[in-house]
Amino acid sequence: MSEKIRELISEEKIDARIREVAERISRDYAGKKLHMICVLKGGVFFMCELSKRITVPVSLDFMSVSSYGNEMNSSGVVKIIKDLDEPLEGKDVLIVEDIIDSGRTLGYLMDILEKRHPASLKLCTLLDKPERRVVDIQTQYCCFEIPDQFVVGYGLDYAQKYRNLPYIGVVDFED
Ligand SMILES: O=P(O)(O)OC[C@H]1O[C@H](OP(=O)(O)OP(=O)(O)O)[C@H](O)[C@@H]1O
Ligand code: HPA
């Protein structure tokens, strides 16, 4: 079986929407410092583009968790592959994700990070697939809601492929 990628959200639309969300975040955190946590690997493209457009002082940290492996459905078991370098105590923390699907990854992550006593803990996601939700997640900043389709590009992969596409595409499978 081979796969074909069909464009769902263009590079231009993503760029424009990230600017809008970055403006909102900059307004909401005016007078504060923002500690942004990127969930690797998928969140890295979004984190770079978003953080460049935020106008309050920003610090960055990275965490790697895995639940999908090379599959198209979450295993339900979330593993920490790399923990944060810095403590979160007293910081205004924004988690930056590429996608919320079942919500299992973020549900697990938010529980762990809350226990580290940040001053605030919010979530910013590039994509949200609300139809797929199993775990309830409160998202403060979302760029796009998408239907229940497996997507790639802008950091998102299928079996580690297509992360570097500059747009979001849907994977169509062919014989
Ligand atoms: O809401 P969920 O159903 O939990 O799915 C969302 C998670 O799945 C993907 O991560 P993945 O485990 O594929 O790792 P990756 O970012 O390294 O590709 C994505 O980056 C989210 O972290
Ligand atoms: O639609 C998706 N694409 C890539 N990775 C994902 N992880 C959760 N959902 C997705």
TrEMBL record:
<comment type="similarity">
    <text>Belongs to the purine/pyrimidine phosphoribosyltransferase family.</text>
</comment>
<dbReference type="GO" id="GO:0000287">
    <property type="term" value="F:magnesium ion binding"/>
</dbReference>
<dbReference type="GO" id="GO:0000166">
    <property type="term" value="F:nucleotide binding"/>
</dbReference>
<dbReference type="GO" id="GO:0004422">
    <property type="term" value="F:hypoxanthine phosphoribosyltransferase activity"/>
</dbReference>
<dbReference type="GO" id="GO:0005829">
    <property type="term" value="C:cytosol"/>
</dbReference>
<keyword id="KW-0660">Purine salvage</keyword>
<dbReference type="InterPro" id="IPR000836">
    <property type="entry name" value="PRTase_dom"/>
</dbReference>
<comment type="pathway">
    <text>Purine metabolism; IMP biosynthesis via salvage pathway; IMP from hypoxanthine: step 1/1.</text>
</comment>
<keyword id="KW-0479">Metal-binding</keyword>
<feature type="domain" description="Phosphoribosyltransferase">
    <location>
        <begin position="13"/>
        <end position="158"/>
    </location>
</feature>
<keyword id="KW-0808">Transferase</keyword>
<dbReference type="Pfam" id="PF00156">
    <property type="entry name" value="Pribosyltran"/>
</dbReference>
<dbReference type="InterPro" id="IPR050408">
    <property type="entry name" value="HGPRT"/>
</dbReference>
<dbReference type="GO" id="GO:0006178">
    <property type="term" value="P:guanine salvage"/>
</dbReference>
<dbReference type="GO" id="GO:0046100">
    <property type="term" value="P:hypoxanthine metabolic process"/>
</dbReference>
<comment type="function">
    <text>Purine salvage pathway enzyme that catalyzes the transfer of the ribosyl-5-phosphate group from 5-phospho-alpha-D-ribose 1-diphosphate (PRPP) to the N9 position of the 6-oxopurines hypoxanthine and guanine to form the corresponding ribonucleotides IMP (inosine 5'-monophosphate) and GMP (guanosine 5'-monophosphate), with the release of PPi.</text>
</comment>
<keyword id="KW-0460">Magnesium</keyword>
<keyword id="KW-0547">Nucleotide-binding</keyword>
<dbReference type="GO" id="GO:0052657">
    <property type="term" value="F:guanine phosphoribosyltransferase activity"/>
</dbReference>
<keyword id="KW-0963">Cytoplasm</keyword>
<keyword id="KW-0328">Glycosyltransferase</keyword>
<dbReference type="InterPro" id="IPR029057">
    <property type="entry name" value="PRTase-like"/>
</dbReference>
<protein>
    <recommendedName>
        <fullName>Hypoxanthine phosphoribosyltransferase</fullName>
        <ecNumber>2.4.2.8</ecNumber>
    </recommendedName>
</protein>
<dbReference type="GO" id="GO:0032263">
    <property type="term" value="P:GMP salvage"/>
</dbReference>
<dbReference type="GO" id="GO:0006166">
    <property type="term" value="P:purine ribonucleoside salvage"/>
</dbReference>
<dbReference type="GO" id="GO:0032264">
    <property type="term" value="P:IMP salvage"/>
</dbReference>
<comment type="pathway">
    <text>Purine metabolism; GMP biosynthesis via salvage pathway; GMP from guanine: step 1/1.</text>
</comment>
<dbReference type="InterPro" id="IPR005904">
    <property type="entry name" value="Hxn_phspho_trans"/>
</dbReference>
